[in-house]
Design a protein that fits this description.
Helix content: over 70%
Radius of gyration: 21 Å
Number of strands: 0
Strand content: under 5%
Largest sheet: none
Structural class: mainly alpha
Amino acid sequence: MEERLAGNKSILVQNFLGLFSIQVLNYLIPLATTPYLTRVLGKEYYASNEYIVSLVGYFVVLIDFGFNISATKRISEKRNSQESLSRIASGILALKVLLMLVSVVVLLFLVDAVPAIGRLKLLVYFSIGSLAGAALFPLWYFLGLEKMKKVAVINIVCRALSAVAIFFIVKNETDFIYISLLNSVAGLASAFAAIYLMKKDGIDFILPRVKYIVALFKESSHFFLSRAAITLYVNTTVILLGTYVGFGELGLFNIAFKIMILSRTPFDILNSVVYPNMASTKNMDLLKKILLLAAVSSTLIYLVLFFGADLILWIIAGKEFVPADDVLRILCLILPLSAVHSLLGGSVLVVHNKSKYFTRSNILSAGLYFIAVAILFLTDNVSLISMAWILVLVDVFVFIYRAYYVRKFKFLTA
């Protein structure tokens, strides 16, 4: 029994490190290039790039469609059946490609219909490869099998090469369009390499039946709604600030938000790695220890960011971005809240077949966000500080909602 627990923990650690490298690089490499880009591009062009990144982010969520939860669970449950794995993988990839095609059509329509987007159309065109990469990268497969090591190495190499290329290619303001192109190339290279690993793993890609694709779509729809609700209010904040406050101010908000997201990344990864394990074992004693670790460590990180905000901004982005210090102090309140409520949602409510409460928490929080934003616009109080406080308010709500139902069903009181 003790050997089995030790092996279980070892797998968790290995997969945490694997997924940690993937997710951290998704944020760390852009953050590592930020000091260079903010100085070469300035606030306006830097924010223009982030504006399109946020727009494309809507479609990445549509393409992912919650499969990192639903498909991960399916793969984990059928890991001993090669035929079932091939069927699931083929169905998910086919569905994601269909969603990508829909996304490209809508994105191209927006280029012609919305002047603010049309002015940045080259950025949009170069970002289409990122959508293809999102469709083809099978993170859900390797998460479900708890085999993250090789795919993590692939991601590290592709993202690192992309980052190095930025320093050689982006030399002035007009070169900012190539950032999206480099990210697209890296995403596609990672995806094709990961699919090659699936083939080596014995996966046979087959043409799935329409009925099966529809079933996968329905199964994952509530996870999509949950994820979409979160992305909707996060990306909408960027879009609203860029449209109504200006790209200069958006640049300040975005760098603070990016630092908060990077700081939160270890806890998002922890949740992703723990989830398939909890789906299989439902070991709530282990989860309680993980919750305590997440709560304590996230609070410590928050204190570092709060007291070191000025210095951190100066090091990462330069003197021009130091005025974002108060925004950073506010946004980082999200850290301890999300570190805990993300585990309560996926690794407690979902694994105990209470997904509806997980989904509701995100949908209701999105509703709360839009009501709060509407009040700000009606009272003419839109600012970087007020928008930051709204994001904190949303996470407070999610934390309280999930904690209430976890306590109500006594999942952690064994």
